[in-house]
Automatic annotation (TrEMBL):
Sequence ranges of Polar residues compositional bias: 39-48
Stretches that traverse the bilayer: none
Gene Ontology terms for molecular function: 4-aminobutyrate:2-oxoglutarate transaminase activity; pyridoxal phosphate binding
The organism's taxonomic lineage, starting at the top: Eukaryota, Fungi, Dikarya, Basidiomycota, Ustilaginomycotina
Cofactor: pyridoxal 5'-phosphate
Domain of life: Eukaryota
Name of the protein: 4-aminobutyrate aminotransferase
Coiled-coil parts of chain: 255-283
EC assignment: 2.6.1.19
Species assigned in the record: Pseudomicrostroma glucosiphilum
Chain positions covered by the region annotation Disordered: 30-50
Catalysed reactions, as listed in the record: 4-aminobutanoate + 2-oxoglutarate = succinate semialdehyde + L-glutamate
Statement: the UniProt record of this protein carries the keyword Lipid biosynthesis: no
Sorted UniProt keywords: Aminotransferase, Coiled coil, Pyridoxal phosphate, Transferase
């Protein structure tokens, strides 16, 4: 089944004078249609996954658990916004490897770097960075991850890690260490403290906690999983720390149409945060609060900038650190490089974690979260120079092609399309959110069953989208997602909605 690149209905939704003008500006800056990618989806099999993908996945399941896999991909054939599966079906990827691909499959500029001696040496001679860093490690960081245009305001330090979960866990450790260092009056450890830590007992192993929000997701390791509250399947049978969680604000969408009642609900939750910190002071003092700018796995749940400013006020007043988990929201997807930039915080957060679209991982932090001694926040790799080089080139590509502003522009057009479809299919496209969040947008179906049917219907037509929470459809297109892809998405979504209505 092959889809045309446009239709009159989709074109009427996307081809405005403003969008044409913006597209012209972007082309002048060097970014237009992604070169060499397919012209559109092309589904050859009667079902997705097709027989060859099923055979590959069945074979993989003999040696590991691949029951969550959707299709098996032929990565050498993928290009730009498109992926090609084992059956040679071509799909427009609106899910981006769970929001992890930024500047396109088989990006030629990145592949050129991958063929350099610099990258080969980094990849094939991977150092234990905490013990034997390369002589040019600072230069690599400063040209990419620590670049002034990238590093979050007010955070001078960086800890590189191996994935989003380890980034968050390392940030948690830093907060616990800083909290106790402050409590000891910034003094060194005594013998009793050191000895008790080996018995997992106080004072060396203090009873502290991390406060998170219900329906949040921060990873699947022991510490991060204790703050993850999005789905039972993530947590079943796994021992967890006894740490508190408070409600996420139950807001009404669109946010801009329910400002007064949403403000009241956000203040209710802020009061809960204050009460919880106070109540846990005698049980397991809260050292830090961890929060996502948009709860992604939990259903694409939003809050206003006011909520996050109030949360920062509370953490400062209570002497609690604030970690902003930007693993999924970071690196341009929301129309600003970091989603928390929109909050206009008077005081920066204490730490900001990253991964996914950066293709590297870690967290930025203040000087206060720097451990009091070496080996305290440490592991063998402490990141990966090859991935830091990759991140450097991704950043360079993003900036050279103005992809953050491009994503903001595409998000405006995408939201307009979804709003139009919501008015015509109100039970299938409801609670639209993300108007000011670039292409990081979502909507709900009335039921989870309808959501699953919509995702499957889109897949059958060659467009991959994701689900989250109980009934949300989340969109995670690449930063190179353009007007042609937008038209194809609009056409495919409308065809799927018509079939379901």
């Amino acid at each position: 089944m092959t889809f045309a690149s446009s239709s009159s209905a989709a074109a009427s939704l996307t081809r405005t004078a403003a969008s044409r003008a913006q597209a012209t500006v972007l082309r002048r800056r060097g970014f237009g249609t992604y070169p060499g990618q397919p012209s559109g989806p092309n589904v050859l099999t009667s079902s997705v996954p097709g027989p060859k993908s099923k055979a590959v996945l069945d074979d993989l399941n003999q040696v590991g658990d691949f029951r969550t896999a959707i299709v098996a991909l032929q990565y050498p054939k993928c290009k730009g916004n498109y992926v090609v599966d084992a059956d040679d079906n071509t799909h427009l990827d609106m899910f981006g490897q769970i929001a992890s691909i930024s500047v396109g499959y088989r990006n030629e500029e990145l592949e050129k770097v991958a063929r350099t001696e610099e990258f080969a040496m980094a990849a094939m001679n991977r150092p234990a960075l905490g013990v034997f860093p390369p002589v040019d490690w600072r230069a690599t960081l400063d040209a990419g991850l620590r670049k002034d245009s990238v590093r979050p305001r007010g955070l001078s330090q960086i800890f590189t890690a191996n994935c989003g979960s380890t980034a968050n866990e390392s940030a948690y450790k830093a907060c616990f260490m800083a909290y106790m260092h402050r409590k000891r009056g910034h003094s060194d450890f005594d013998q009793k403290t050191m000895a008790s830590s080996m018995d997992n007992a106080a004072p060396g192993a203090p009873t502290l906690s991390m406060l998170s929000f219900k329906t949040g997701f921060h990873g699947r390791l022991f510490g991060s999983l204790s703050t993850t509250r999005s789905k039972p399947i993530h947590k079943l049978d796994i021992p967890a720390f006894d740490w508190p969680a408070v409600d996420w604000p139950a807001l009404k969408y669109p946010l801009e149409e329910h400002e007064a009642e949403n403000r009241k609900e956000e203040e209710r939750v802020i009061a809960l945060v204050e009460e919880t910190i106070e109540q846990w002071e005698t049980k397991a003092p809260v050292a830090a609060v961890v929060v996502e700018p948009i709860q992604s796995e939990g259903g694409d749940n939003h809050a206003s900038p006011h909520f996050f400013r109030r949360l920062r006020e509370v953490t400062i007043q209570k002497g609690v650190y604030m970690i902003v988990d930007e693993v999924q929201t970071g690196v341009g997807a929301t129309g600003t490089f970091w989603a928390h930039e929109k909050w206009d915080l008077p005081t920066p957060p204490d730490a900001v974690s990253f991964s996914k679209k950066m293709q590297a991982a870690g967290y930025y932090h203040t000087e206060e979260l720097r451990p009091s001694a070496g080996y305290r926040n440490f592991n063998t790799w402490m990141g990966d120079p090859a991935r830091a080089i990759q991140a450097r080139e991704i950043i360079r590509y993003i900036e050279a092609h103005s992809l953050v502003s491009h994503t903001a522009s595409m998000g405006t057009q995408l939201h307009s399309i979804l709003a139009s479809l919501s008015s015509r299919y109100p039970t299938l496209v409801q609670n639209l959110r993300g108007k000011t969040e670039g292409t990081f947008q979502a909507f709900d179906c009335e039921t989870g069953k309808e959501r699953d049917a919509l995702v499957a219907g889109m897949r059958k037509r060659g467009v991959l989208v994701g689900g989250s929470g109980e009934r949300a459809v989340r969109l995670r297109p690449l930063l190179i997602f353009g007007e042609k892809e937008l038209e194809i998405f609009a056409e495919t979504l409308e065809a799927t909605l018509k079939e379901m209505a």
